[in-house]
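Escalated from tier 1: inosinic acid holo job.
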Amino acid sequence: MTRVVLASGNAKKLAELRRILEPLVPGVEVLGLRDVEPYDEPAETEPTFEGNALIKARAAVAATGLPALADDSGLCVDALNGMPGVLSARWAGVAKDDAANNRLLLAQLADVPDERRTATFRCVMAFVRPDGTEIVQSGEMPGRILRDERGEGGFGYDPLFAADGYDVSTAELSREEKDAISHRGKALRAIAPRVAEALRRS
Ligand code: IMP
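Tier 2 regenerated the structure:
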């Protein structure tokens, strides 16, 4: 069976990726970082999602010798000139504290009227093979920032984000509903056939 490492330490994100990828790439065994020998995860030092996704995938290949898939994602808020962007996970500090990030975002947008609360979740998936082959694919979910947190599902900024065409937050959607419209779902569904083809040739 072909094995591929998903280079994410975020358990909820890993579960989302597995759920979408496994049916799309038949016969693939998807390993998480907990399933491989521990290695020092690289710092995400690039200013772009693509740069950081590639850093993570290349490090996983170097450490495991297996093909690897990594994503980098974040929330780009128009009224904040596209921030938090690549800083989404640590917007309120290095602790990667979702509750603190959400509080800070709400405070920053307190005076921003509804029509200017537009935002987009962005995701770049990077697949790297041990022979150096690299494939990248992006996905987006446009929407708006709500005025208070809603829902218990999802993770990160989901309770504060309503996708275009929805009156509920992405934390109020079922997993399947979120996968169908999410930035990560779109990027993953677009890259999956290319990953399957690259795995067949390896
Ligand atoms: P990454 O793990 O470096 O890609 O950081 C992604 C960060 O962006 C997460 O910690 C969240 O703060 C935010 N984020 C990315 N995708 C989502 C999503 O689907 N829902 C909510 N927050 C997200």
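The chain has one domain: 2-201.
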